[in-house]
Amino acid sequence: MKTRTFLVSLVLTAGSWLSARAAEPAKPTAAPAPAPAATPSTATPPKMETVTIATGCFWCTEVIMRRVKGVSKATSGYTNGNTKNPTYEEVCTGLTGHAEAVEVVYDPAVLPFETLAHLFFDMHDPTTLNRQGNDKGTQYRSGIFYHTDEQKAVALKVKEEVGKSGKYKDPIITEITKAATFYPAENYHQDYFNKNVPNKTGNYRYCQFSTIPKLKKLGLLKPGDE
Prior knowledge:
Order of helices and strands: HEHEHEHEEEHEEHHH
CATH class: Alpha Beta
Radius of gyration: 36 Å
Structural class: alpha+beta
Largest sheet: 6 strands, mixed
Number of domains: 1
CATH topology: Peptide Methionine Sulfoxide Reductase, Chain A
CATH superfamily: Peptide methionine sulphoxide reductase MsrA
Strand order of the largest sheet: 7-6-1-3-2-8
Shape: globular
Helix content: 25-40%
Number of strands: 8
CATH architecture: 2-Layer Sandwich
């Protein structure tokens, strides 16, 4: 009898406990912890620099620079003259004072300016005044038009080194001058070699005669160039 009474009491107690638990308000489910914010990239973009160079006809200079590792942009144009917005025909008269030049944007971490300056003296004859091959006139003069004092110092240093090296029998006459306003040339001059030589359009024979030997010399010739 006592055992039965104990069991009934136990059942009643359990029922009361379950009822009390059911009456309790449900505890809110904890929200998941937010995902950590993405860490922004710490990579530093390359610090690009610009220099303007002239080695005669800009068609040759531009295609060479476009193929050099470290160069991000090469634009043909006219620089260091005395008239605004000159046309190609006006520059060809030699009366505007401009040089046919290429504005080069490059990464100095990949292509140090000293290396670029040595390449400049390798890609043309820096000893002929206002002339490259059959091209004659002040618009075809040799020049480094620097954008920073550091470029100026390095250009002068390399010019002296090349002059003393015995590579050229005549004195180097390259102009090293602060860059003035640069005017991009007409669209048909941009990327002239690559647009015309493989397709045998435009003045492609001039490029075959003057540019291909330079690309060969510098190890920059590509299949299909000839």
